[in-house]
Input
Amino acid sequence: MGSQSVSENSHLLSRIAAGDGHGENSSYFDGWKAYDSNPFHPVSNPGGVIQMGLAENLLCLDLIKEWIKEHPEASICTEEGLNYFEAVANFQDYHGLPSFRQALARFMGKARGGRVSFNPDRIVMSGGGTGAQETLAFCLADPGDAFLVPTPYYPAFDRDFCWRTGVRLLPINCYSCDNFKLTKAALESAYETARKDNIRVKGVLMTNPSNPLGTTMDRGTLKTLLTFVNQKRIHLICDEIFSGSVFNQIDFLSVCELLDEEPSYDKSLIHIAYSLSKDLGLPGFRVGVIYSYNDTVVKCARRMSSFGLVSSQTQHLLSHMLNDDDFTSKYLAENKRRLHKRHEEYTSGLEKFGIKCLPSTAGLFVWMDLRQFLKENTENGELELWRVIISDVKLNVSPSSSFRCTEPGWFRVCFANMDDATMHVALKRIGDFADKVKDETTQLQQKKRFNKKLRLSFCRINDGGITQHLMSPHLQSPQSPLVKASY
Ligand SMILES: Cc1ncc(COP(=O)(O)O)c(C=O)c1O
Output
């Protein structure tokens, strides 16, 4: 393949092709590359990098595989299911299989504790949550318009929401002193800053439960947000992709519940993005959902869904699986139980080494606080620490700066994409690292104390009027009687 210079490409190709709006140059993706070039394997590469930068859920795939084994008729590639082959292989209606939309609607309700119901006619399919975000951006904003997004936020939003649409994301800065909760003041301030810069704000984009924090949004904050978008007449996109991955179900309040409770909010401003990549652990199936309360958005998104349809074979299989009420109830309960267990093991393991995480009740990751290990409280200091963690500790974790967080020293660590044994190796590596840094710090402090005492004793001697002698380099030798005297 020939190679073109950047300037030549900018003439030959589109701005998208010649630019780097994909965001692949961030540390978030660099960590993945480090893992790809030296992946950990317990037998063939025990010294390799452990992938803790991937929010993938492998904890319950055994349940899915069991179900598939017990239901050969659900697949068109088995003797039992082959009768459906023609009908499924020829299906290409962008409305999707009605049975699939019904099954999805039921599953989405269940994943939210059965407290809300979804209308299958409002379900639009997309190529994963990624496609859902982009389609929503296309429907709700024009190039140059902006959505506000609380920080820290999922790094790939810059790609999914902005890259091809030309829509911008503007941060709403949240801080650890508020447990990274979104405040009304921060929301208003981000909106006003955008207005002063003549940027048209079309809405707010948020994840609930949060990626990367693993926290859920409380009722008060959600109400503030709904009131805000209603007053400004802008949109609210709630990415609820982790709604079925909440260990403590009481903690999760979907925006749909609030809309049901308070009819005064204008529903047509509210849109939900969902996918089966996390709650069902099937990112490879590329099943995404746009659920909008706005009829025009549903219509337009459905037309756009031709660009990212879910294959009819996948729809067929999953409509059987998700229509099996017994299975989905057991799966969701077991998924929560396993995630909770893993979360507890991981966070309590870290605590033994004096490492804390932001308290959380959801998701496939924790927000780990490594501020105590920063040499410098800056983004550079964070990236320096991150490089050590990747290259020496051999863990791919994601630094807070890649989530547009303004506070250095926090790292997102995924814990559900590995088996128990690998998790213990990862914990041991972090523990050894923490011990090593603490030893080094103690030694450094001892040295500093020693030097301080030394200076003090020099001062005392200096008081005695032997300044000229102290200027001599010989006196700094460890053999000097003056130095010995200062122990
Ligand atoms: C908040 C959020 N939205 C969307 C996505 C993309 O999901 P999908 O794999 O279904 O495209 C992810 C994946 O990590 C995510 O965390």
Remarks:
- Residues 463-487 have pLDDT under 50 and may be disordered.
- The pocket of pyridoxal-5'-phosphate is lined by residues 55, 128-130, 154, 207, 211, 239, 241, 275, 277, 283, 288 (CB under 6 Å).
- The first strand starts at residue 50 and ends at 51.
- The chain has three domains: 21-60+333-435, 63-329, 438-485.
